[in-house]
């Protein structure tokens, strides 16, 4: 029989034979959550098809949202590479976070062990625990893929297939869609490494509640060793906030699915410990306390801020984020946007949606003003942002001064547009121009915003964000009928605002 005809018949009669033998173009990972020993998980993977003589395998030094070296490679041990016959292929560790693998084109499997990034929230670490992974056999796993999965620098932007062996009673809570392969194995796909790292997962016996916010499905997943039915209370508490955020964002949320992953560790000690990390479509929250009584308020604050990250940096971000270098990242100069504008939306939304009183709003502004004064406000925000790793002492000012700058920008936009346009509209326009898969050039953003708004806005950025002029709070709050006492830091409404101030305030906060 002609060999070509033979191959043709095999393809028709036994397509799986050819498929099984064909090298894949994606990373195929296997993670074993069943056979955990000494808080270590066994991980193995097959690299994508390639013709490389050698490759550099990387586990992140840093990840987006955390501005300090975490060195996730420190949790990796027993690294080895083998060919299809099980013969070892030479590899060597280059530093904390990378390995050189020879004859990569011959490599069939790479395996290693991963240990816990944290055992208890009580322990001190060099960085946020919410970015690390936790494995407790037959109990729970909090998985951040940046501490388990890596990539070859020569094989970037490649899809991932992750197979996870797990307890048959465990459920995967994540913004990604996990599929059941069989009773003890789940499978999930990610389009690239950035999406995988941006999508943590909580594995445990499920305590979950789903919310429908417009067309968006919101998953609330909760773990505590003793409490088994708490996710419903959390979901009920945050539902009103999420619905108001939906209205604030124009009536439609720009994601189909979002996940809140909440781990609570019971303690007999006084006080509470909390840690969290936002992602584009999910938020990880870790808490440790005697009582869960504080959780509703704490999670309301988290939901208010973190959920707004579906706007930026998910749909509005620079090339530094789109093509993030997990080993040696360069920082964007626009943390005023990513964190400052997000925090501003967090305090602006409740007053605009009539969830709080004017007095409560004034108190919130006073808190931000007081917080801003604890930092060096003679430094340009763009400079602090570009040097966020080195200037950790100033980083938290993006959550204090940042929203106050955004407040002034909002009032200025509404003043120039006769009340028709503010930062809400600006963010919508930026989303339409860029979106999830298109980034802006870091040096061009101020000019691009100026083009889509007003020429005067360029001087605002130049004076207050690129420059060091003090935040013009007194001047701008006066435009909307508020008085700001610079000596005491008090904010109050004017007794007799004129019609222009009243109209602009109405456009700004609907009051």
UniProtKB/TrEMBL annotation:
It comes from the Bacteria. Keywords: Signal. Residues 301-404 form the Peptidase M61 catalytic domain. InterPro entries: Peptidase_M4/M1_CTD_sf (IPR027268), Peptidase_M61_catalytic (IPR007963), Peptidase_M61_N (IPR040756). Residues 28-203 form the Peptidase M61 N-terminal domain. It holds the Pfam family Peptidase_M61. Residues 1-20 form the signal peptide. This is Peptidase M61. It comes from Chryseobacterium paridis.
């Amino acid at each position: 029989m002609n060999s070509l005809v033979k191959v043709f018949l095999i393809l028709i009669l036994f397509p799986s034979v050819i498929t099984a033998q064909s090298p894949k173009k994606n990373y195929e990972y296997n993670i074993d959550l069943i056979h955990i020993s000494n808080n270590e998980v066994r991980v193995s993977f097959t690299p994508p098809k390639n013709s490389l003589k050698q490759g550099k395998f990387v586990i992140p030094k840093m990840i987006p949202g955390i501005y300090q070296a975490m060195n996730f490679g420190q949790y990796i041990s027993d690294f080895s590479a083998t060919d299809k016959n099980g013969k070892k292929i030479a590899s060597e560790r280059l530093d904390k976070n990378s390995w050189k693998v020879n004859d990569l084109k011959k490599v069939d499997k790479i395996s290693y062990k991963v240990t816990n990034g944290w055992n208890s929230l009580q322990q001190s670490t060099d960085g946020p625990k919410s970015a690390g992974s936790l494995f407790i056999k037959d109990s729970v796993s909090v998985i951040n893929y940046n501490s388990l999965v890596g990539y070859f620098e020569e094989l970037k932007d490649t899809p991932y297939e992750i197979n996870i062996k797990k307890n048959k009673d465990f459920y995967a809570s994540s913004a990604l869609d996990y599929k059941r392969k069989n009773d003890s194995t789940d499978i999930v796909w990610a389009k690239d490494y950035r999406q995988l790292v941006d999508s943590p997962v909580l594995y445990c016996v499920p305590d979950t509640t789903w919310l429908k916010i417009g067309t968006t499905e919101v998953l609330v997943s909760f773990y505590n060793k003793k409490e088994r039915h708490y996710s419903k209370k959390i979901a009920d508490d945050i539902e009103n906030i999420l619905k108001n955020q939906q209205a604030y964002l124009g009536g439609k949320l720009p994601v189909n699915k979002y996940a809140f992953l909440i781990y609570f560790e019971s303690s007999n000690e006084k006080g509470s410990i909390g840690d969290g990390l936002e992602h584009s479509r999910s938020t990880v929250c870790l808490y440790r306390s005697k009582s869960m009584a504080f959780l509703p308020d704490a999670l309301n604050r988290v939901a208010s801020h973190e959920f707004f990250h579906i706007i930026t940096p998910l749909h509005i971000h620079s090339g530094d984020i789109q093509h993030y270098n997990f080993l040696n990242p360069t920082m964007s100069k626009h943390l005023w946007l990513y964190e400052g504008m997000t925090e501003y939306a967090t305090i602006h939304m409740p007053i605009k949606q009539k969830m709080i009183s004017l007095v409560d709003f004034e108190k919130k502004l006073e808190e931000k003003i007081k917080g801003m004064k604890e930092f060096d406000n003679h430094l340009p925000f763009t400079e602090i942002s570009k040097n966020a790793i080195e200037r950790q002492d100033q980083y938290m000012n993006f959550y204090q001064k940042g929203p106050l700058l955004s407040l002034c920008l909002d009032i200025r936009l509404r003043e120039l547009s006769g009340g028709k346009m503010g930062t809400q509209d600006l963010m919508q326009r930026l989303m339409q121009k860029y979106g999830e898969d298109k980034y802006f050039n870091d040096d061009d953003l101020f000019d691009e915003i100026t083009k889509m708004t007003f020429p005067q806005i360029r001087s605002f950025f130049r004076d207050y964000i690129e420059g060091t002029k003090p935040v013009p709070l007194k001047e701008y709050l006066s435009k909307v009928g508020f008085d700001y006492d610079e000596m005491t830091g008090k904010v109050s409404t004017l007794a007799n605002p004129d019609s222009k101030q009243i109209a602009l305030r109405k456009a700004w906060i609907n009051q």
